[in-house]
Each structure stands twice: as C-alpha cells, then as structure tokens.
Design brief:
globular; 6-stranded mixed β-sheet; 10 strands; mainly beta
C-alpha cells in the first residue's frame, strides 16, 4: 500500500464525530488491533468541512489512545496519510495519523499583567 500525505490545513475545520475506540482486528474473537510494538491502535471518526462544501466523515487510525479527544470537539490531526486499498470487489481509502489532539481553545484570554510590577 502506498501512503499519500494529506495536507490537513486544506481540510477546513476538523471535529471529533465519534471518540477514540480500540480498532478491532477480528470481530469474531473481539481481538484488538496492535501495531508492531504491541501498542493498541485506536479509531477516531472525524468530520471534515471545507468552505462551501458538505461535511464528510473520515475514520482515522492512530497508535495509542488520543487523550482529551471528545465527541463534538475541534481536533488537530498530525501526520495524516491516506492509503488506497482493494479486496476483491471492495475498495476504498483508509486514513492513518501520527497523532490526534484537542485543538487549542479559540480566543483564550491572555494572562492579566501583574498590577504590582513596577511598584508605586
């Protein structure tokens, strides 16, 4: 599978649609998918909305549980790659990221200046 880097700055606002869940490797045994180092792989559904376009939902796999990522919250996705796949008559695109983190709050107030500084 060839990885295709995705420029997330062109995707618009990214929001968590479904919070992190361990990715299942085998639905019959409920075995959780692990990476080569034995770390659990999680899946996060993220909405993508570019200006003037419909909302799309993509499912992104990431190694390790993304901390602080909750449904409805804006997120940042780092190191996003897309992979085209085909199995018989089925085909699609899967996504994997290096990290998914909560977006910093917009318009967070700056720290108030110390009124005692400078003396008087």
């Amino acid at each position: 599978m060839q990885s295709i880097p995705v420029d997330t700055s062109r995707l618009g606002v990214l929001r968590c649609a479904v919070g992190p869940e361990p990715k299942i490797a085998d639905f019959e045994t409920k075995e959780v998918k692990k990476d080569r180092d034995g770390n659990t792989i999680y899946s996060v559904a993220v909405t993508v909305r570019q200006d003037g376009r419909r909302v799309s939902v993509i499912e992104i796999a990431v190694t390790g549980e993304p901390k602080g990522v909750v449904e409805g919250a804006e997120v940042r996705v780092t190191g996003l790659d897309a992979f085209a796949w085909a199995m018989g008559d089925r085909h699609g695109i899967s996504f994997r990221a290096a990290a998914i983190t909560p977006a910093p709050p917009v318009g967070a107030p700056a720290a108030a200046p110390n009124s005692k500084a400078g003396g008087a």
